[in-house]
């Protein structure tokens, strides 16, 4: 092989190397494109799933609102149910539970939308009473205004109950003044206060303080049950009160139910 042949061979070899590098580059580009397409497809599928879930939620909330209007009777617009207010799903559940009992004596820790709606249901049924404990004068006045605007003074009321120190087995809590809690028996206890900034597990005292006032078939309802503090409260309540059976409802912020286990006759 002469010098010219060797030079030609070297040139061909270099060209083949460059061609191989270009092919590798094309393969890498193709792989990157395929990965990007896979990622876009997965993102689109996730978006479709989220849109379907949002549509189902919106439809369910419309159903809940329509059911509430039927349960509350011809009373005009219902109060707002967004933001910090209880959502339509929880409010509907409470209204249906109230109705199924043929009316009930309800005590709420914290006032608001549910106070007004349950008072409307009580008036529609012609029986029942809703009492809400409220430590914040602004919210107390707001709920009273909603009740007064609908002429519900005989069915729902708000008790001004400032937070005070409450001792429970050596632990001190900031909770509603127990001396201001009505002494009537409680069929449904809705725990939606005090607010979280009051302190860790701020809503815990409700059951220990009020357990002796609960009816035999009482229902305890804890709102915002998906939050860490409320999960801890639920666990403590369940441990201390084995006569109650716990149930979780998949509402927007989670709802915990505690129902007293029915007593069985022996012999």
TrEMBL record:
<dbReference type="GO" id="GO:0032259">
    <property type="term" value="P:methylation"/>
</dbReference>
<dbReference type="GO" id="GO:0008168">
    <property type="term" value="F:methyltransferase activity"/>
</dbReference>
<keyword id="KW-0489">Methyltransferase</keyword>
<keyword id="KW-0808">Transferase</keyword>
<protein>
    <submittedName>
        <fullName>Methyltransferase family protein</fullName>
    </submittedName>
</protein>
<dbReference type="InterPro" id="IPR029063">
    <property type="entry name" value="SAM-dependent_MTases_sf"/>
</dbReference>
<dbReference type="Pfam" id="PF13578">
    <property type="entry name" value="Methyltransf_24"/>
</dbReference>
């Amino acid at each position: 092989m002469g010098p010219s042949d060797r030079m030609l061979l070297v040139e061909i070899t270099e060209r083949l190397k460059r061609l191989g590098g270009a092919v590798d580059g094309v393969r890498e580009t193709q792989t990157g494109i395929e990965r990007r397409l896979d990622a876009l497809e997965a993102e689109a599928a996730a978006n479709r799933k989220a849109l379907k879930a949002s549509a189902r939620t919106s439809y369910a909330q419309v159903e809940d609102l329509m059911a509430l209007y039927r349960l509350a009777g011809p009373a005009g617009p219902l109060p707002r149910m967004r933001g910090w207010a209880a959502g339509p799903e929880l409010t509907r559940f409470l209204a249906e539970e109230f109705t199924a009992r043929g009316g009930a004596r309800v005590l709420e820790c914290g006032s608001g939308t549910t106070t007004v709606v349950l008072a409307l249901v009580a008036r529609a049924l012609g029986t029942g009473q809703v009492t809400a404990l409220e430590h914040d004068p602004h919210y107390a006045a707001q709920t009273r205004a909603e009740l007064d605007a609908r002429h519900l003074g005989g069915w729902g009321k708000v008790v001004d109950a400032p937070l005070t120190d409450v001792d429970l087995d050596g632990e001190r809590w900031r909770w509603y003044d127990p001396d201001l809690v009505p002494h009537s028996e409680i069929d449904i206890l809705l725990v939606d206060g005090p607010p979280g900034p009051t302190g860790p597990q701020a809503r815990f005292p409700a059951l220990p303080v009020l357990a002796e006032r609960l009816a035999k078939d009482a229902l305890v309802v804890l709102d915002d049950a998906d939050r860490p503090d409320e999960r801890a409260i639920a666990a403590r309540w369940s441990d201390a009160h084995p006569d109650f059976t716990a149930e979780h409802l998949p509402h927007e912020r989670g709802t915990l139910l505690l129902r007293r286990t029915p007593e069985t006759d022996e012999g």
